[in-house]
Amino acid sequence: MLNEINIDPALIPQHIAIIMDGNGRWAKQHGKERSYGHQVGAQTARKIIEESARIGIKHLTLYTFSTENWNRPAEEISALMNLLLDSIEEDVFLRNNVSFRVIGDMSKMPADVQERLQSCINNVAHCTGMCLVLALSYSSRWEIAEAAKQIALDVQVGKITANEVDSVAFSSYLSTNFMPDPDLLIRTGGEVRLSNYLLWQCAYSELYFCDTYWPEFDEKELHRAIYGYQRRERRFGKTSEQI
Ligand code: IPE
Ligand code: IPE
Ligand code: MG
């Protein structure tokens, strides 16, 4: 099935970021509760994690819960937190040699979720394949404001001077400082917006939007996105002739 789309193994993006959107609309379309859409969405996430690891992606960053998602009904938030507890599967990570990190305001997460995340991070820290990053209670503006605050504090105590604050130094203050910027950003679910996700980091990412609701996104669609990416010319401000 996957062979229909021949992606070039030599040009696999290092870092893919995904906005997993459309769970609620998919559930509604099937006459189900939104929480059912999230459950099926979690299964999609597992499939995409396994396939991404298999084809050699180095970092996969999944937008799992945004700062703005705290404004959803309490019962949906609680269903999502419980689902998160159920979906963190060390055995899947270990089997696929996947290490695990989180970005976002962990202090806002329930204590049991924080503990579960931390123990999983520790238990798979030795894995050397793909690094899976979940963005949880995350938004770019929160992250950028936090970085600005930390830089101000570091300037105050003389760790860095104001003149030394350039884009490289600034990036090192972001929660994503351990990985390269996304090469490819995928958003499912039909909306064409970034919803406060990795705004700084996606300055030069290739963007791929598809109408497929996240529960129906699959390996083939991932390959299609990568195939499209491999046909783009990334110029970074230069002319075609310079590339
Ligand atoms: C994405 O699906 C999952 C989260 C934001 C947690 P949605 O829940 O946003 O689904 P739609 O957009 O309402 O269909
Ligand atoms: C973005 O989806 C957040 C996640 C996928 C976790 P939303 O469904 O919350 O985005 P908006 O609010 O419709 O833009
Ligand atoms: Mg949505």
Topology of helices and strands:
Blueprint: E1 15-19, H1 23-29, H2 34-55, E2 59-66, H3 74-87, H4 90-95, E3 99-103, H5 111-123, E4 131-138, H6 140-156, H7 167-172, E5 184-187, E6 206-209, H8 219-230
Parallel strand pairs: 1-2, 1-5, 2-4, 3-4, 5-6
> Under the CATH scheme, which class?
Alpha Beta
Could you tell me the number of beta strands?
A: 6
The major β-sheet equals: 6 strands, parallel
Q: Mind telling me which CATH architecture this is?
A: 3-Layer(aba) Sandwich
Q: Rg from C-alpha positions? A: 19 Å
**What order do the helices and strands follow?**
EHHEHHEHEHHEEH
**Spatial arrangement of strands, main beta sheet:** 3-4-2-1-5-6
Strand content: 5-15%
Overall number of domains: 1
Shape from CA axes? globular
- Indicate the low-confidence ranges by residue numbers: none
Helix proportion range:
25-40%
CATH topology: Undecaprenyl pyrophosphate synthetase
Number of helices: 8
